[in-house]
Amino acid sequence: MMEYSVDLLSFRTKSKFVLVLGILLVLVAIGWFIAIWVRKGSASFFDWLFFILLLLNGVVQTSYGLGNPIERLFGKAFIRINSQAISIKTGVFDKKQTVKWSDIRSISYKPANFIVTKKDNSTCMLSMSKLGYSLIKEIKNVVSNMANDKNIPTEN
Predict the structure, then answer these.
(1) DSSP codes joined into one string, 106-150
(2) Does residue 57 surpass a pLDDT of 90?
């Protein structure tokens, strides 16, 4: 049985520039706060707010620079195609779209989505508009091959 799985959040690459920028933001935030504390002896609400925002921005940029998307804290984004179902979740805040192979009558391919006709004559659109062209093409090939194995008609 063939299984195809892609973690859409793993496409981030490491960036030295963003990593250095993140570290500089953290250092500036800490240095600025120390300077305020030494000069005034205390920090106002706005000083605390500015410090926290600058520090948080530095941490997020450092995380991106290391290749770890911060979106992972909020959810997953993936493509999973196996012998039981097609599951697509293109963004961490997007709803997961799943169709079981046993429910599919036919599949039509459009430029950025699949239109699945189910055995109960209802249709379901699996959207891939947030994905790159090469990945969509790869997914279409996998779906086409699995549909052929299961004798499900497909049309372009």
Answers:
(1) EEEEETTEEEEEETTS-EEEEE-TTS-HHHHHHHHHHHHHHHHHT
(2) yes
Mean pLDDT of 89-117: 91
Residue 125 to residue 97: CA distance in whole angstroms: 9
69: left (phi over 0), alpha (psi -120 to 50) or beta: beta
Q: Measure CA 38 to chain center.
A: 43
143: left (phi over 0), alpha (psi -120 to 50) or beta: alpha
Answering whether pTM is above 0.90, one says no
Average pLDDT, the chain: 89
What is the chain's Cα-based Rg? Answer: 23
Angle between helix 45-65 and 16-40 (nearest 10): 160
Closest CA to 81 of 99, 107, 102: 99
13 vs 99, residue with greater confidence? 99
Helices of type H across 15-114: 16-40, 45-65
